[in-house]
Amino acid sequence: LYIRSADLTGTDRRLTTSPNYQLPFSWASGGKLLVFQENTRDTGMDIGVVAVDETSAPAMLLQTKADEGYPAVSSDGRWIAYSSNLSGRPEVYVQPFPDLGGRWQVSTQGGVSPLWHPNGSELFYRTNRAMMSVPVEPGGTTLRYGSPRRLFEASYVADDGFGRNYSLAPD
After folding, report:
1. Measured between alpha carbons, how far is 137 from 162 in angstroms, rounded to an integer?
2. pLDDT tens digits for range 99-139
3. Straight-line distance from the first to the last Cα atom of the chain, in angstroms, rounded to the nearest whole number
4. Residue 114 in contact with residue 83, Cβ under 8 Å?
5. Among residues 21, 85, 33, 78, which one has the least CA distance to residue 59?
6. 3-class SS of residue 31
7. Coil, strand or helix at 30
8. What pTM was estimated for this model as a whole?
9. Which residues contact 94 (CB under 8 A, 6 or more apart)?
10. Which residues lie below 8 Å from residue 149, measured CB to CB, with a gap of 6+?
């Protein structure tokens, strides 16, 4: 992974040196941390974090035999949502960030590629062709959440585990 100024001045600066395929997914701590997905032969998809100011080496947050990917950090920086096949199929989970305490499965019929509403009150994700939404109430070290609801169905660019294929509009 590399970083470069948005106005394209300066040069690229390398953030990681892993030989594995890595994708940037989410900013945290006011843009000081980059949360990424790394794909390896041994553990599949994993989630890591790197400080963009070079104060520390990259670290893996979630690295198990299950696939963990599509990380999204909440706008307040206190929660991370991601997809994992820990249950046998991809589902959406939420944990405190950066210290991964409890874990809550918020999807019920499968789910990938979560994204937070900017105000943190809702979590969006995809299940096949359906866009889903779950109301969430993060508080302290616990998470309360409601039932998922289908917002709409649509066609998406092929989902191959190598990037998020939708975004949120302000409305």
Report:
1. 29
2. 898 899 999 999 999 999 999 999 999 998 899 999 999 87
3. 32
4. yes
5. 33
6. helix
7. helix
8. 0.92
9. 79, 80, 81, 103, 104, 106, 123, 136, 143, 145
10. 132, 133, 134
